[in-house]
Amino acid sequence: MLDLAAQHAALQPALGEAISVVLREAEFINGPAVAAFAQELSAALGGPHVIPCANGTDALQLALMSLNLPPNAEIILPAFTYVATAEAAAVLGLRPMFVDVLPTTFCLDPVAVEAAITPRTGAVLAVHLFGQCADMEALMQLSTRRGIPLIEDNAQAIGAMYRFTDGAQAAAGTIGEVGTTSFFPAKNLGAFGDGGAVFTNDAARAAFLRQLANHGQTRKYHHQHIGLNSRLDTLQAALLRVKLPHLPAWTAARQRIADHYDAALGGISGLRIPYRDPQSSHVFHQYTLTLENAPSAMSCKNICASGACRAWCIIRCRCTCSPPMPTLAHGPGSFRCLRTCAAPCCHCPSTRC
Predict the structure, then answer these.
(1) For 172, which DSSP code?
(2) Whose CA is closest to 47, among 231, 136, 152, 170?
(3) Which residue segments constitute the domains of the chain, with CATH numbers given?
(4) Is residue 78 a contact partner of residue 98, using CB atoms and an 8 Å limit?
(5) What is the full DSSP assignment across 89-152?
(6) Running DSSP on this structure, what letter comes out for residue 339?
(7) Which pLDDT belongs to residue 317?
(8) pLDDT of residue 269
């Protein structure tokens, strides 16, 4: 779905030099490139504190740890998401509470979120799925009104911008109490292995997160908190610094390809092209078609066979059906929109056709 070999070939001289610098300096843990990358990513996202870490799942776990929630606190999250979203809560002894998603964006339904709030609710975790933002205006209003922290899982939408009705704009991942992202190689901004980061606009929380990501240390060998060993390698940071300036151009290319797909596929019966929320730009981590019936699935296969695009079809997994989550019972008729979203989907390449 993403031709990393071609992407990296164009950057080979700069990537090679970045590797050479890290090897010469031999500061492989928390070397200069880590702080430099955090500063440059902060500038690209409008100025939040950026705390690099080992991967996107750790980023979610660190975000939740920074809230100091009591055991069994409920974390409201979308039922249509990757398992890491729920896993990060469950491993901390928190309780994932799945709610339905909107049929358009596949992101959290704010009405369903409010209905799921109880006195035990500790946080709401919004996932910016496939490359565009959840309804952050409604979710932020709800978060403020009910006094519940809002976390953003921005693994798939780095570079997306959200527009509020008053005209204000903010980068995905920088709006809620804490935001997270992943630098898994297949992401829009991918490392050469695992990597992640946490974002916050709160300086005190940023300091706490830095400690949590480094064994809870306030300084070397002084451990004030129980934390994680979750540091972005210097080598990964150095390579991400090479790639970061190209992200806007890569995003624009993805959007042009999405326009091409819209024009080619928009008129086919039974195929639903991605909805574009007017309040969010779409960075098309994935261009996802919903196949509404069997003939539409055949149409997708025929399109692929004709050479119009290369794609792959999947059956979308629902976290609510995963065996590790057996205690989360849901009544008949739960997640009506989820059942539609979890129908067969077709993902088209967002970088080459």
Answers:
(1) T
(2) 170
(3) 4-245 (3.40.640.10), 247-348 (3.90.1150.10)
(4) yes
(5) HHTTT-EEEEE-B-TTT-SB-HHHHHHH--TTEEEEEEE--TTS---HHHHHHHHHHHT--EEE
(6) H
(7) 41
(8) 87
Q: Name residue 268's amino acid.
A: I
Which stretches in the chain have pLDDT values below 70? 1, 293-345, 351-353
Q: Both tokens of residue 257?
A: 């390809």
Does the CA dihedral 51-54-59-62 come out positive or negative? negative
Helix (H, G, I), strand (E, B) or coil at 163: strand
Residues 4-43 have pLDDT tens digits of 999 999 999 999 999 999 999 999 999 999 999 999 999 9
Angle between helix axes 32-44 and 234-243 (nearest 10 degrees) is 40
4: left (phi over 0), alpha (psi -120 to 50) or beta: alpha
Which of left, alpha, beta for 30 (phi over 0: left; psi -120 to 50: alpha)? left
pLDDT at 341: 57
Structure tokens at 54: 């080992």
3-state SS class at 83: helix
Buried-state track 190-223, b at ≥16 Cβ within 10 A, e below 16: bbbebbbbbbbbeeebbebbbbbbbbbbeeeeee
CB 119 within 8 A of CB 94: no
Q: Among residues 331, 342, 341, 352, which one has the least CA distance to residue 116?
A: 331
Query: How far apart are alpha carbons 244 and 188 in whole angstroms?
Result: 10
Tell me the torsion sign for CA atoms 248, 249, 254, 259. Answer: positive
| Contact (CB, 8 A) for 184 and 55 | yes
Q: How many CB atoms lie within 10 A of CB 308?
A: 15
User: Does the predicted model carry a pTM greater than 0.85?
Assistant: yes
Q: What is the pLDDT of residue 303?
A: 55
Cα dihedral 69, 72, 78, 82 in deg (nearest 10): 90
Instruction: Report pLDDT digits (tens) over 85-134.
Output: 999 999 999 999 999 999 999 999 999 999 999 999 999 999 999 999 99
Backbone angles phi, psi at 108, to 5 degrees: -50, 135
Rounded CA separation 131/161 (Å): 10
Cβ distance 318 to 342 under 8 Å? Answer: yes
